[in-house]
What does this fold into?
Amino acid sequence: MINNLSILLPEIFLSLSIFTILMLGVFIKKSFNIVFNLTSLILILTIAIILNNPNNEEKIFLDSFIRDSFSNYFKFLILISSLFILNVSKNFIIENNLNKFEYPIIILLSILGMFFMVSANDLILFYLGLELQSLSLYILASIDRDNLRSSESGIKYFVLSALSSGLLLYGCSLLYGFTGSTNFDLIANQLSESNIGAVFAMVFILVGLAFKVSAVPFHMWTPDVYEGAPTSITNYFAVVPKVAGLALLIKFMLIPFSNILLEWQTILIFISISSMILGAVAAIVQKNIKRLLAYSSIGHIGYALAGVATGEISGYESAIIYISIYVIMNIGAFSCLYLLKKDGVYKESITDLSGISKKSPLLALSFLIILFSMAGIPPLGGFFAKFYIFIAVLEKEMYFLAIIGLLTTVISAFYYLKIIKTIYFDDSIITLEKVKNKTAQVSIFLSCSILLTFFLYPSILNNVVNSLFSS
Amino acid sequence: MNFPILSTLIFLPLLSSFFIFLSKDRNNNSSSIYISLFSSIATFLLSLFLWYSLDSNTADFQFVEEKSWINNFIKFKLGVDGISILFIVLTAFITPICIISCINSIKDRVKEFLIAILVLETFMIGVFCSLDLVIFYLFFEGGLIPMFLIIGVWGGSRRVYSAFKFFLFTLLGSVLMLVAIIVIYWLTGTTDITQIYEITIPKEHQNLLWLAFLSSFAVKMPMWPVHTWLPDAHVEAPTAGSVILAAILLKMAGYGFLRFSIPMFPYASEFFTPLIYSLSIIAIIYTSLVALMQDDMKKLIAYSSVAHMGYVTLGIFTFTKQGIEGSIYQMISHGLISAALFLCVGVVYDRLHSRLISTYGGLVNYLPKYAFLFLIFALAALGLPGTTGFLGEFLILTGTFQKSYLAAMLATLGVVLGAAYMLWLTKRVIFGVTQNSKIETLTDVNKLEILMLGVLAFFVIFFGFYPMPLFETFSFSVNSLIDNYQLALNTR
It folds into this structure.
């Protein structure tokens, strides 16, 4: 078995580095900078390890841990987005006195948790990973502990998330009770449509997962936490845990619940439709950008779930493509927020964007590209994300889901247009400071150019994602 | 031919807009204007070359370019035939005129405006070149972004309302078309139009798919009752925006009917012909009456556009050679005439900043050259023989008489109404007594304006007397369109 430990190399490396920099942080005074830079280095090294990871399927620890191209892809996505989010928000962290050395370390811990989540092939490992991730996220939400709103959002997230974890755990235990195993493969063999108890367990697990990806009707925490938490944390919340949550949803459909897909699909279709509708309608009246992005992310998750709900490989592929493009768009959008500063305060209200197209045309143009892309207007990247979803959904002849999806696209276009209207059509009321944040500018540039040029070679993502399921 | 002439045509404006984006001139924007003029004229010359070298004795697609695009199942396929080439030339011809017009009328953010126009040109040419449904949708929808900005940023007082209405109406129509495109893909296994032409789409699916396409084209056309966005958009858009909207964007839908609805869904096209007839007749008569009542010049011309587009849909769905050829001709002619009329309104709007008819009157006394040009276009719009306006309507009515007397007679009524509102407009704006003392201080059209309007007037009269070049170009394509349609109906 010791030979097989190389399968676990990224996780081992990550854990050891976390302990090392934790020690560094404790013993060196004013260690934020050094820990932060080391964290970036660790992330880059882990990316290198993941890229060098062979893609063949290997299981270890009594088949409870699996490494395959699927988990590698998601780990890569998690790492690269964390790397960007962390570096983009460095100025923000320092200026808002969040520069405690624990900050990057807790982020790394949550990444470790997500690694185990996406690699889990066993209910226990899956739950442990999920809890490691959740506990880290609770702390992150309230990291600005002197700020009432941040503490409130942390508590809120903790209470609700603990409840959902409890439900999830209850579901896991039920599943164990009805199938006699915690291993995904064995569960899959045991399950059948007639197993009512297992269907019950499935509902509980689905509730837990839907909470983590903030799908309706388990989305209540999202707007408040997004608004209350510091922007750098919101950015992290909006991207990384969603990637991991979606990976798990797909994984549950692929392996343990592959025999009772029909029940699972019915619920997913409902969740998907209600997320799309709520994400589109509730965002219209928002005045805070972070709150608006919260609702928009609920809507986006709805689209991704529509792909998952098809229960077909092509649907899962489209969901993975969707979430990948979603990551690019969201990193771009949040990076723009780090450039909206006046009198040393980062602005979050939509009215603060009024007329910025005159004073800072490049920032306005980036907003324009990202928002139109989020609305799914061709030829930008966001259109292709939706296009693949609809191809998969219509292949299964789920016309109702497709029509709802398209109608909500139009409704959500309305609020994206409203922001664009504020940026381009309104007169400017405030003058923004010139913010020096090179990394944010680089990440905006990267995300915009990917979204703009995606149409030239749209199959690049397809080829990668197709290979995840080919084995 | 190996040189990718169509891709060059499509991406040349985009490329030059990128150069404008990079160019730095703070005070007078002259370099942006020169770059955009140069590139748009180059595009026009290239499109003329394309027209010249197109073999009009065949209905096949020519200059076809094909590249694998999405996972080999959707191809990036471009090509032109006798029908689409004319629209490409029209687009490439109107764009430089728009750019010239904005020298006078756009005062702030000129650079951004030119970028928007050039990006829009890329999308418009792309629409007419694409031979793949997904590519078509991509260009069709992509045009919304620059047009939204043109209306919203440089528009009039109610620009926000108009821009939103334009965007959301069109988007709502188009998303249904996207569903239909994907359903077609799953039915036939391809989105390549030339391959879909060979496959008969099952009859039970045709009606719904046809309606989905209609929802998009009806909004874009615009057909009654979803035409309400057009007057708002026209009124608020800046002159160049109105010109592009009327001259080219509206033609996309008519082109869409010819390229997609009829060849792909012949049964459904036949089945829904009465619906199209009714909507067209209502559009012709109702919007003509509405146009009579307008006191805003741009609104009047916008409603007259809806009426003219009613003729186009009527002509297309006669499935006769006269009707379809007349429709294509009418679209080209309307592209020239409505562009010219909006430019005419723009000329006086730049001077007095009013679009209301009551502001003007007696312009002929102070602006004789302007009055002369305006009269040419007004007469062309009401279909005076010798201008392009006449021949299109005449052919469409000839075609309609073969199919339905009632429809043709009702449509002929529209010709009378058209004459009524255009002549009344001319009377109130150009002739009559000068009420407004400001008019006496106005200067007549300057050289640039004469250039723009003169070129348009020349083509309106030239093609009115000598339409052969146009008909020779599309005659084979139209024949094969009708033949294939009849063949599909007979083999049921």
